[in-house]
Amino acid sequence: MQFKTAIATLALITTSAACQAPTLYVEERATLQAAQESLDSGQFEAVQTPLEQLVAGTSKTQGNYSLQKFFAAFLLVRANLSASLDKPYLTEPATSRGGTSKPSWIAQTVAATYEMDFAEDWAAKAAASPATIDGEALLPESLANYGVPTARRFITLGRLFAAARLGFQQDVAALLQEYPELEDLAACEQSMAETELDEDMKPWILFGVFDYLKTRDEPLAYLFGIRARQLTKQSKSALAAGLGDTIVHWIQFDSSFVFESNRGIPFDPGLSGDPDAGQANIEYLARKKEAD
Predict the structure, then answer these.
(1) pLDDT per position as a tens digit, 159-183
(2) Is the entire prediction scored with pTM above 0.85?
(3) Which pLDDT band, with edges at 50, 70 and 90, does 110 fall under?
(4) Distance (Å, rounded) from C-alpha 108 to C-alpha 89?
(5) Neighbours of 201 (CB within 10 A)
(6) What Cα–Cα distance (Å) separates residue 151 from each residue in 29, 156, 284?
(7) How far apart are CA 255 and CA 290, in angstroms?
(8) For the chain, domain boundaries
(9) If phi over 0 gives left and psi between -120 and 50 gives alpha, with beta otherwise, what is residue 134?
(10) What is the pLDDT of residue 58?
(11) Sequence-ordered alpha helix ranges (H) in 94-201
């Protein structure tokens, strides 16, 4: 009798677990959907707690949850990076006794880098995870279509953005040595477009590559610098505004090349190009400066 009772109890537990599991997947999928919608409407702070709870709520050894946990961390990366550009909500400690903490883009950017590490912890399992369990989709349609590979590329670009903005030149160098394809301007811009990167992040990424290339390939650095400068003019970020001046100073004074049109008209920061030559600034040619 005891044996039959134990078997019946085990069957009940198994049935109960099977019934509860899909509900949990659905709930976590709904959390991801709500977070995605909040981010799209600029409500960055609102997603922090529910996504952090999703990330911490289950053991990362459970493969069934890896896909959802990866995208929860990915959305936290997006939230922190976007907030760092526009309206930071995380604070740094007060700098003086009795002072008050203020929202900080630095704190927001550093928080994003932590979330990037969490995402990478689950990336491999997430890539191998089934899209559905017990007939239930693990992700909302928008994230399923976006996919793990694209999210990982976003995170790579996010690391480059964070390193460039924080002035961590060694980190920029390490990333570009790991991902040399980003030294191709067309490929870099295509990757930024395909990952749906925030427009105000783009000038920082291009500036980071420009700064790295200045001592390695000056004509290529010029291309990245000109494109970064174009995007800074479209950016809403006040911090990005100074990048253009830095780029112009290097082109005119620090580079060992003169950048000029086919007619020999040198780069002029007040002009978009040489209309008589039919060339935009980005199409200018590099000529080695003559020794004094």
Answers:
(1) 999 999 999 999 999 999 999 999 9
(2) yes
(3) very high
(4) 7
(5) 27
(6) 17, 9, 35
(7) 12
(8) 18-93+100-146
(9) left
(10) 53
(11) 105-128, 141-146, 148-166, 169-178, 185-194
